[in-house]
What we know:
Blueprint (H helix, E strand, L loop, with lengths): L2 H27 L11 E6 L10 E13 L4 E11 L6 E13 L9 E8 L4 E3 L6 E6 L2 E9 L11
Parallel strand pairs: 3-5, 4-7
Antiparallel strand pairs: 1-7, 2-5, 2-6, 2-8, 3-4
Amino acid sequence: xxxxxxxxxxTFGFMALLLAGTQALADKDDIHMFPEADKNQDRFVIRxxxxxxxxxxxxxxxxxxxxxxxxxxxxxxxxxxxxxxKGWGYSYYELxxxxxxxxxMMACPQPAKKRYVPIVGxxxxxxxxxxxxxxxxxxxxxxxxxxxxxxxxDAESASKI
Length: 161
């Protein structure tokens, strides 16, 4: 390998590290106005990619808790409340008061085992916005994932009866 190529590879590697570090700082900087999670909470941050027409997209928050559960279909209940950062006007979301929810009542021959039980409730589907991160506070022990939903401009006709 020539000296010139080695120098170019070294420069390229340095630039890649610099860009990665800049992105990490940008990621941290875009949430500095949001409060830290308190001792009983975890804070999750979701960043979504920019879309050409964001009105065609929705973001679904999928929260769950790992707990012992038998063969019955189970869910937990909770509400995702929208709050505002004072002085900034940015929104964040808080999941509080997670309670037992609906369950089937089958007799289960197998013992209960640990599995993720979903949390269902109001306001888990949010307007899509790539300009700001989604910041979500949940009780400790809750896991947060997300789905991006997409539609088209085409609408189906309803039948008039």
